[in-house]
Design brief:
Mean pLDDT: 85
Number of strands: 6
Helix content: 40-55%
Distance between the termini: 31 Å
Structural class: alpha+beta
Low-confidence stretches: none
Number of helices: 6
Number of domains: 2
CATH architecture of the largest domain: Sandwich
Order of helices and strands: HHEEEEEEHHHH
């Protein structure tokens, strides 16, 4: 999702072990969703976490202008909806099934958190992963603002460097780079 995430493999492995070991307490539910199904709606209460078993989802930010901005595409074996682990959390993005159907495990966040209390190492790695993703969002925001400033000051070289950095972080950001380039040309 965000390029290389060193903790992700560990988190996914330990997460699956935790689900298997605590199946009765956690009660994961397997769900099948069709293409274009909205799994998570931005702004809604985060009650469930998901493990994407098969398929692909799009992480989309809905702005005040009602545009959807794709931040990433996520494929199988990924953990989603981690804000459900935080009491009274709200989802910060939409998550939509794309490119066919998807199969997921749905887990109530508070049940998962109780099970995770016995695996402190997993908790630290998971929150480390979340922190790294927040840092990358800040980088994305900073680069986008750099691009806007380059357009404003008519600095084509800085804009090109900024767009290349956006694409190198995550190919899904190429849409942002393209939009910035188009703004410069207009």
């Amino acid at each position: 999702m965000w390029g290389k995430e060193p903790q992700l493999e560990f988190v996914n492995y330990r997460f699956k072990q935790l689900l298997e070991t605590n199946k009765l307490e956690v009660q994961p539910r397997k769900i099948h969703l069709p293409n274009d199904h909205l799994l998570i709606k931005q702004g809604t209460s985060a009650e469930y976490c998901y493990l994407l078993l098969e398929g692909k989802v799009s992480i989309e930010l809905e702005s005040n202008s009602f545009y959807l901005h794709r931040l990433a595409c996520v494929e199988a074996e990924q953990f989603l909806g981690e804000l459900a682990l935080i009491e009274k959390g709200k989802h910060t993005c939409n998550v939509r099934v794309i490119d066919g159907s998807a199969e997921l495990l749905e887990i109530r966040g508070n049940s998962l958190m109780k099970a995770m209390l016995y695996d402190v190492e997993l908790v630290f790695e998971l929150f480390g992963l979340v922190c790294d993703r927040c840092k990358k969002i800040n980088l994305l925001l900073g680069l986008t603002l750099d691009g806007i400033n380059a357009i404003k000051s008519k600095d084509k070289m800085t804009l090109e460097k900024t767009c290349q950095k956006l694409i190198s972080i995550n190919n899904d950001f190429s849409d942002i780079a393209l939009q910035l380039s188009q703004l410069y040309e207009n």
